[in-house]
Amino acid sequence: MSNKKSHKSINIPCDILFCILSRLRAKSLLRFRSVSKPWNAIISDKGFKKAQCDQSKELGREKLLLQIYYSDKFEFINLENPQFAIEKQQFPLKGFERANVLCSYDGLVLLKKRRAYKTFVLWNPSTRQCQTLECPYLSSYTCSRSCGLCYDSTADDYKVILIYTSFYTVCSVNSNDWKKKENLHMLEQRVPSLCGISTEGCVFWSLNRAPDPFVSTTSKVIYFDVKSDELKEFPVPNFVGDNDLFQLATLKGSLCLYGGKINNDIYCKDLEVDMWIMKQDGWKWLMKLRDVPAEFCESYFVKYSRPLHYTRNGKIVFQGPKIARLYIA
């Protein structure tokens, strides 16, 4: 009689396996890719990456990636407990030391190699995968004025938008296909904010006479329509008054404005910042922030602080005016 034990394989339907794996952390998924070819195919699929990212948000696992000042080293911060660093990671591509981080969206980061004006890299820090993007329309010393990154759900594709002085380009990441658009009449000598705000398949920028990020009654707001690949004008909200200054942001997956009536007195003790959020039926007032650091005047706070995350207990995590400073208000 043979003493060998028979081994039975367990076949799990693909849809159930997809659901189970999407609930795991990225660090575990990196290991499980080596279990089998079918598992590797599921985990490497773009649709799975989107589902896993959405699931992480639902489970409260959102992390912030911070670049350690003037280096190619990064660290993950738990947004529910921002005083704790989760892990550190080094950007994997050689020759991209101290690369400029341009923007990020949905767990992806767009970087540009220093002094390399045509070469960009889309990086997924969770899976440690990179894709190099080479813009064919640029001369040697052409620098983008603004950038953006968004997801096209109809094509299951990410798009990179780069705005220059007289044109803008759109890159479809799946095919690395670039389009050049020259209809920039809406700029009218205005300067778009450096980094676009990505939410719900659009990217938003404020336009000003000077290179600052404020939205006021004299500003314009433009957005990239992912369906038409066109830049369009977005109306400035009615609640923005003559003496108000706001910045664009994203919270809870929606477009947000924060700011209000600005008191430029540097000795001002009582800073008040209003936050508005865009819903399907229009702008809704979200909250008034009073417990913010009073060491800066309001205009400095609004200009150099950026809301990053709306926590489960109703607090907002900000990136502060000082480099790599996080605080909760």
Automatic annotation (TrEMBL):
Pfam families: F-box, FBA_3
CDD domains per record: F-box_AtFBW1-like (cd22157)
SMART domains membership: FBOX
Organism placement in taxonomy: Eukaryota, Viridiplantae, Streptophyta, Embryophyta, Tracheophyta
Signal peptide range in chain numbering: none
NCBIfam families xrefs: F_box_assoc_1 (TIGR01640)
Domain F-box: 6-51
Protein name per the record: F-box protein CPR1-like
SUPFAM superfamilies xref list: F-box domain, Galactose oxidase, central domain
